[in-house]
Amino acid sequence: MFRSNVVSASLVAVAWFWGSGAVRGDDNKPADADVRVIRDIAYYDGPDADQVKHKLDLYLPTDRKDYPVVLFIHGGAWRTGDKNYFGVYSAIGEFFARHGVGAVVTNYRLSPAVKHPEHIKDVARAFAWTHKHIADYGGRPDQIFVCGHSAGGHLAALLATDDTYLREHGLSLKAIKGVMPMSGIYVVTTPLLASVFGKDPEICKKASPMTHVRGDAPPFLIVYAERDFPTCGTMSEAFCKALKEKKCSAETCEIKDRNHVSIILRVSTDGDPAGEALLKFIADRVAAKP
Q1: Residues 91-111: what's their mean pLDDT?
Q2: Helix (H) or strand (E) run with residue 33 in it
């Protein structure tokens, strides 16, 4: 259905981008005065815990309580990146907090050190930590949204469609208030990602959010760029259509004059259409009756 060779080349390109230092920023820039930042909280402390990748950062609004929360998952083709990355994701955390939404920006283990499903297992751990502890910081555990870009978009969508990973923590998909994948991959078919998913087509199928579309999934806002990677828009629209056919609330949002990289670099700028779409989706879901 989708041209896997084109998607493969695109993901290789984004892995180069995130690994090349193409973005520069000041990661030591102080947060806005209205934002409290708590860094490097361990969300998993088992005997095999990674001292770097099993950590998350909190960005919390200081002028309110009982606020909704976004768990944000970074991109990087499942092989590069982290929760700071030259200030890109720190800026996103601060953006949400400035607008009254707590943000949890998480790390997860990367390939080739681990393969699927270890990435999504880590994301589920981070979500479970958030659900258990965010009330201690003023957030609402019943209003947790999941958002991610590129590989993070894939992981956000998979967490919200395949309940296998949340069930390991005694949670269901009902624990997710809404999902906002950006420029994500929803069908895993590419052989160039063998270091991430392996070569077994059944494993790739199970790793695909499209495989798990269901009517009781949380509401989706599926965001992509006008000049995104080839097939990204088509795949996003197809994923949305599949969710709607299952009677799941879902919509797409194409961001004009953006590409796969600029959509995430600009989302934290006040007035950016992608950022505004995310905030509106959160506000609408919080205001909606259960």
Answers
A1: 97
A2: none
